[in-house]
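Incident log, structure service

09:12 report received: a user says their structure output differs between two submissions of the same chain.
09:20 pulled the input from the user's history:
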Amino acid sequence: MGWIAFTLMAACMQAIRVAAQKQLSGQMSALGVTFVRYLFGLPFVALYLYWLGVDFALVQQASPVVWAWILAGGIFQIIATWALISVFRWHNFAVGTTLAKTETLLAAVFGALFFGLSLTFMGWTAVLIGMAGIICLSWPARVHIRNWLSPATLLGLLSGLLFAVNALAIHHSSRLFDLPPIHAAAVVLCSMILMQIPLMVLWMTWREPRVWRDIRQHWRPGLFIGLTSAIGSVGWFTAMSLQNPALVKTLGQVEFFLVLLITLRVFRERIQRREWAGMALILLSVIVVMQAG
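09:34 re-ran on a clean worker, output below:
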């Protein structure tokens, strides 16, 4: 049952991080907001890896295939995060955000087709109920044809697809290490960030050099995003090393409860009947997935 605790921790931290990233997105580009989570998160992840006392002699024995999977997963995560943050910049972001959450269903389908990660009947039921809950929560009241033809839709689909592949890459690469699952997950996480940072540094220096000034000016919120990202990533990576990523992502949808709680208590916004129905469906999917897991 350890994967459940790690998933709940990750979902909580992700809700906080995304809220902070959304606020920071008004101060710097989507690429810059994406980068701060890796830059400021790395020291915390490195400390965690050191605290675990990982046997690096076993790490060095890993085949090149492992590192290729980690690199691919890291690239997919960068593009997926950039696409999701870019969705926030569009007025009709509701459709795009909903489509980004198809990562759960896509992880289940791709996992079964290409990674041998089959789900039981209850597992598929949990995934589908969770998707229905997400649609109820985030689907806009009025949908016009222009919503489907907007960049937000394409970015949302891209984000969901790449997050799903990233989750499967994390699961697969962690299983290829001859290490305990928690240690393997930490190695994959730290290695992925170390690969992501140089790639983003080169790209930003070429395409968005002014982002360095923005990061220096907003290092305090960047540090907070890095901390919450590191804690959340530890939870996600560990849970996905222990369990089918589709089930992890389904349980992780409890993040929406925290988001709606903030909406209700902090911003005093009213929760609609459709949103209550969505939360009920997500709660049902969580109950089913815990039985299936």
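09:41 both user submissions now match this output. Likely a transient worker issue. Closing.
09:42 reviewer note: The chain has one domain: 2-292. Residues 181-207 form the longest helix (27 residues).
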